[in-house]
Amino acid sequence: MNISVGSVDIWTLFVTIRDEILIPASGSMFRIGNNVTTITTFVSFCSCYDSFVDINDMFYCSYPDSHRVLRKSLDSSLNSYSIIAGGGYCGSTADLLCNPYGIFVDINLDLYVADYSYSRIQRFHQGQLNATTVAGGAVSATTISLYYPAAVILDADKYLYIVDYWNHRIVGQGPNGFRCIVGCNGGGSASDQLAYPMSLSFDSYGNLFVVDRDNNRIQKFVLASNSCSKSCKSRVTTIE
């Protein structure tokens, strides 16, 4: 199936629980419903690097060029958006971001931001403009050191998974803290290596998919389970 939205720059898309595809691109939002021939321009928006829709149908956009994260209702009658993270310029304090990339919003409406240029993951509690660093940055001694993280997600158990871009690896959180789970032997093109990974996602079975940018491939890491713990197997499926 081919879906065209014309000549626009597309960095991200989000599929809602209603199977609606949201594509923020070139200052607009394209909404594609079950009838794929219906494509509408929806509200002027920035060029999003990453996007997310929370449980209240609020749409989020990370905007690295202005060091902010924006939020807007998916109700088409409400055209205004709000700045919920970042001050519009690069900074390292709790209220600022510097090139925010990947974003994730949990069921408590807490916002997690991969603050790329300061190598940290920032958590903004709902309604608060000051963040807590939960990985990387100044607290790396008690969590894990990151090198330009590009994406962050939470699993069903509310553990963090981070794309550690310049370290060519995926970092995961568990009961015993953070550890490397993929790409732990440095960057490369072998099945257990990555080269500048950009994003990641889980499927409903717990398998992990990684966009392995410089290897021009999508890597699937199959979930392994036993009586003690769950982790990603070293066996990989490459999706060209």
Quaternary structure = single chain
* Whole-angstrom Rg: 18 Å
Gross morphology: globular
The spatial strand order of the largest sheet comes to 1-2-3-4
Summed over residues and divided by their number, the pLDDT gives a mean of 83
The overall strand count is: 20
Provide a descriptive summary of the structure in words.
This protein is mainly β and about 240 residues long. The protein has no helices and 20 strands. A hairpin with a 4-residue loop joins strand 10 and strand 11. The protein starts with 13 loop residues before the first strand and ends with a strand.
Give a brief rundown of this model.
By secondary structure, this protein is mostly beta strands. The chain has strands spanning 14-15, 21-25, 28-32, 39-41, 50-53, 58-63, 68-73, 82-85, 100-105, 111-115, 120-124, 132-136, 149-154, 160-164, 169-174, 177-182, 197-202, 208-212, 217-225, 230-239.
